[in-house]
Each structure stands twice: as structure tokens, then as C-alpha cells.
Amino acid sequence: MEESWEPGSLMKVVHLLVLSGAWGMQMWVTFVSGFLLFRSLPRHTFGLVQSRLFPFYFHISMACAFINLCILAPQYAWTQLTFWEASQLFLLLLSLTLAATNARWLGPRTTATMRALQTLEKERGLGGEVPGTYQGPDPYRQLRDRDPKYGALRQAFFRYHGFSSLCNLGCLLSNGLCLVLLALSLRSL
């Protein structure tokens, strides 16, 4: 019969810091920085900033989930996992999988498609404006309607971006639920 391994105090602190740090970073990137940058920067500058930040963000999310799995997995007797223990391991594995999908597959494809879009937009003098500042008809919609290549690229970009956003929200939710499970297992504050 396998015995449970009890992590030391340092491992518990590392687990809590890594999990809460990852969740805090995900909250900031998802709900604060993206909206502030989008409303403050020219369109192409915003895309460039995001394309530089997101690879680091996705890889850090992936590393945090991996570290937490490495801390938690050895402490459980796999044949006697409780529902809460299995849930926490599943959520961390889900977070790792979603972050890896973003880091290794969706992120690079989204960035490559964005760059192709920006090339076509620059050729037509677009991309230097802050979103929401132009008056009259939407020049991007007009370009999409006139240029089938641009329309197809735009559709691909929004598809990749949408899947990437869903993966990001899945990571955020997984880590948030792990924090809830951790808080519910505290005996005192």
C-alpha cells in the first residue's frame, strides 16, 4: 500500500506562491492590461506589444502549472485519491494543457496571422489609429468586403484569437478553482 507524502512547509509556501502568482498574472493580463492597452495604443502597436508579451505569459502560465503539478502529484496515494485531490490534480493538468496549447500552437499562429493582416493594412494606410477614433464608415470592414484575401486572414485571426482566449479563460478558471479548493482545505486563517 502506498503512503502519502506530506510536503514540507517550504513546498507548501512555494505551491501557494506559484498558484496565486499565476492566477494574479492571469487576472491582470486578461482583465486589465489588454483593455487598457487596446484603448490607449494605435492598433498595430497594440498588436506588436501583445505579440511580444503573450509568448512569455503563456510559457510562464505553463511553467507555473507544471511546478504545481510536480509539488502536488507525489504527495497523494494515487489509489486513494479523494474527489477534492483528484479535482485539484485534474485542474492543474487542464491548466498545463491549455497553457501549452496557447504557448506552442495557438499563440504563434495568431501572431503570424496578425502580422499578415498588418502588412495588408499598412499597404492601405491603416493601423496607426487608436481604436474608436476614426469617424465615418469602418475602413477595416470596407477592406474586408473588397479584399477576399484580407477577409480570409481576418477570419483566421479571429478564429485563432478566439480559441486562444478560451484556453486563457480555462487556465484562469482552473487556477481560480484550485485556489478555492486550497482555501476550503484550510483549517484556520
Describe the structure.
- With 189 residues, this protein is an all-alpha fold.
- The chain has one domain.
- 78% of the residues lie in helices and 0% in strands.
- The chain contains 5 helices and no strands.
- Helix 1 runs antiparallel to helix 2.
- The longest helix is centred in the middle third of the chain and has 41 residues.
- The radius of gyration is 21 Å and the shape is elongated.
Chart the SSEs and their pairings.
Blueprint: H1 9-40, H2 43-72, H3 83-123, H4 139-146, H5 148-184
Helix pairs in contact: 1-2, 1-5, 2-3, 3-5, 4-5
CA gyration radius, whole angstroms = 21 Å
Average pLDDT works out at 92
Structural class estimated from helices and strands: mainly alpha
Query: How many structural domains?
Result: 1
Q: Output the number of helix runs.
A: 5
Q: What characteristic shape results from the CA principal axes?
A: elongated
In short:
The protein has helices spanning 9-40, 43-72, 83-123, 139-146, 148-184. It is mostly helical and 189 residues long. The two termini are 33 Å apart.
List keywords for this structure.
5 helices; mainly alpha; single chain; 189 residues
